[in-house]
Design goal:
The two termini are 36 Å apart. The mean pLDDT is 95. Helix 2 links the parallel strand 1 and strand 2 (81-86). The longest helix is centred in the N-terminal third of the chain and has 22 residues, at 4-25. This protein is of the alpha/beta class. Helix 1 packs parallel to helix 2 (58-77) and helix 3 (109-117) packs across helix 7 (227-240). The protein contains eight helices and ten strands. Bound molecules: uridine-5'-diphosphate (UDP). Uridine-5'-diphosphate binds at residues 37, 88, 107-109, 112, 124-127, 138, 140, 178, 201, 204.
Length: 251
């Protein structure tokens, strides 16, 4: 929202450039990282893949354009294609070796929480507590990044079986509020997270969670980790990499 043109062009021109190179080298299958952001607030959750898109941000619009480009590519060149709509990936590999290391101030909830927990930032800002949700904070469908990765493996095998083009939600089907995530993290880490309620963030909606049943039925994939494992593994990575990757390497 703060950098609409950059965001939109990265997702549209970037996708087109990659598709063009894929065409030139004769790629045999394509998987797109799309987003639940395309559902917007007019979709009554749980969001099904058949819901009409309702984009509320340049990011969501760029992702939707990316999906359209893949549809064109699939139609013109007959390349098996999977469009995966990610819900809210958090967590890390359980080894603590691979985790989320955002540049600058984190935009997303979980890396912000872990940076507060490790002492890099004084407090979490919660963007709005007057949404029509049980506690007033935004509700999302958080998914462990390892489950998300496994969803790609399942989608690739489905493509190998020749599925044409298909769209799948990758989520758990469960919604947690920002305050739910804060307390789950405090429980998993034993660290208190100070927070302050701030105004709503532009482009945010109240509630978004998936109906993941299509992926289970057609790909045989289901998210196995819960919010406890997501918090545990995010914290494990942050503890092992207190200043992120770059500073760890410089030590
Ligand atoms: N959020 C928040 N503080 C932050 C970052 C996010 O309160 O510093 C909220 C945000 O308003 C939303 C939820 O946490 O309700 C998830 O936001 P995130 O940016 O992680 O993912 P999004 O759903 O926007 O893709």
């Amino acid at each position: 929202v703060e950098e609409p043109a950059e965001t939109f062009f990265a997702n549209t021109q970037g996708t087109l450039s990659i598709l063009e190179v894929a065409r030139q080298v004769g790629a045999k299958k394509v998987v797109l990282s799309s987003s639940a952001a395309i559902y917007g607030e007019h979709t009554i959750p749980p969001c099904k893949e058949t819901a009409l898109p309702d984009c509320k941000s340049p990011y969501a619009l760029g992702k939707l354009q990316g999906e359209e480009m893949l549809k064109m590519y699939n139609m013109l060149y007959n390349v098996p294609t999977a469009i995966l709509r990610y819900f809210n990936p958090i967590g890390a590999h359980e080894s603590g070796l691979i985790g989320e290391n955002p540049n600058g101030i984190p935009n997303n909830l979980m890396p912000y929480i872990t940076q507060v927990a490790i002492g890099q930032r004084p407090e979490l800002g919660i963007f709005g507590n007057d949404y029509p949700t049980p506690d007033g904070t935004g509700v999302r469908d958080y998914i462990h990044v390892v489950d998300l990765a496994k969803g790609h493996v399942s989608a690739l095998s489905a493509i190998e079986r020749g599925c044409g083009l298909a769209i799948y939600n990758l989520g758990t089907g469960k919604g947690y509020s920002v305050l739910d995530v804060v307390s789950a993290f405090e429980k998993a880490s034993g660290v208190k997270i100070p927070y302050r309620i701030k105004p709503r963030r532009a482009g945010d909606i109240a509630t978004c969670y998936s109906d993941p049943s299509k992926a289970e039925k057609e790909l045989g994939w289901k998210a196995l980790n819960g919010i406890e494992e997501m918090c545990r593994d995010s914290w494990n990575w942050q503890k092992k990499n207190p200043a992120g990757y770059i500073c760890t390497e410089q030590k």
